[in-house]
From TrEMBL:
Gene3D superfamilies: Outer membrane efflux proteins (OEP). This is Outer membrane protein. Belongs to the outer membrane factor (OMF) (TC 1.B.17) family. InterPro entries: OMP_efflux (IPR003423), TolC-like (IPR051906). It comes from Aequorivita sublithincola (strain DSM 14238 / LMG 21431 / ACAM 643 / 9-3). The keyword Transport applies. Pfam families: OEP.
Amino acid sequence: MKKIAIPFLFLILSISLSAQEKLWTLQECVTHALENNISVKQSQLDLELTDADKLDAIGNFLPSINANASASKNTGLSLNPTNNRLESTTFGSASGAINVGYTLFDGLQNVRQLQRAKLSELAAQYRLDKMKDDIALLVANSYLQVLLNKANLEVSKSQNIVTLQQLDRTNNLVDAGVLPRGDLLEIKATDAGEKQRIAVAENTVKISLINLAQLLLVKDYSSFDIADEEYKIVDDGIADKDVNEIINSAKETRSEVKIALKNVELAEKDVQISQGNFYPTLSAFFGYNTRYADNDPLDRAFTEQLYLNDGIGYGLQLNVPIFNGFSVRSNVKRNKVNLKNTEYQLEQAELDLESNVYQAYVDANGALKAYEAATVALESQELAYQYAKDRYDVGLTNAFDFSQSKLRFDNAKIEENRTKFEYIFKLKVLELYFGVPASELKF
């Protein structure tokens, strides 16, 4: 029994641990955010609302059909609906009618409303696309920040291991009388400073993980963690392109300009719709009605009365606007002003996009140069550190100079990590402007 129970126990334990230690990849974080982010959900609802607007616009092309019925009890002098005579008696009556109406011409307002509903749907889709791009980029930035903080923590830990080794060696040399006790105290001070930096780095990692979890709406902060994947600089040649080529691509693909352009088209439709009120409206109508009374002189049955007392009406109705207190004219003027405003907004959106692309292009190139410089500096500091270590090991330099060299090497490694992840993010921003979908960004 024990032979069966022990493996089973280990199986349950391993399943439990694997469930608790879920490590989120960048793609999982982006997918989760796009599915659960409140702003994205609100944009999706806005898109669904446009379906209702489009349904209303389509319904304007269909005839209106309405039915009504009434029943009453009359006492005293009342009009008998079956013979149109005034009678002083008590009787019950009922009537019913069906009316059909259809707009033949309304200044093309129905056509414009449908066109506007379709434009509104496109604009809502572009807003949703932009929201998804923004959220994906925000998640990627937060994810890379966690990776950067973790990389810096590993630098601090690995260098502290070296310090502990040096502390042990220095302690032996001091005991042997080879090195002065001041060197031991210097190494101990270095160890204490590194442990303090490790504590700060661990706290920074926790804070960045909490920030990412909050962005993803994940409430279990204590067990939330990301996969420690190696993210390399993946450049598909975007950074080598001419900035004007990136700007032109951004104007064709970015949602900011598309949204502004659709807003102009929507404003144009609003002007056309309001101008339609200057034109006459022609509509057709058809009606059928019938009635019944329980004091019929001939004592005819209910169905017979409905058949004999029915009637039909049909015709055309023309409404010509002559004067409505300038309401139509003022509405047209307001819509024209709004159109002009949206045209300015489109122009501003194009200028802002051009400026943002230029800024992203400069940032990406600057980040690359900073990363290359940090890499060279790290190589130099590593050589300097190794040289100082070798000299310290043979007693040609003191502990203070060695600690300073080691500190410069640690800082160079941290700076190389920072510039690397900053360049990765800046490069992805530039790729987004070039038209690469957020879901297809390569890390």
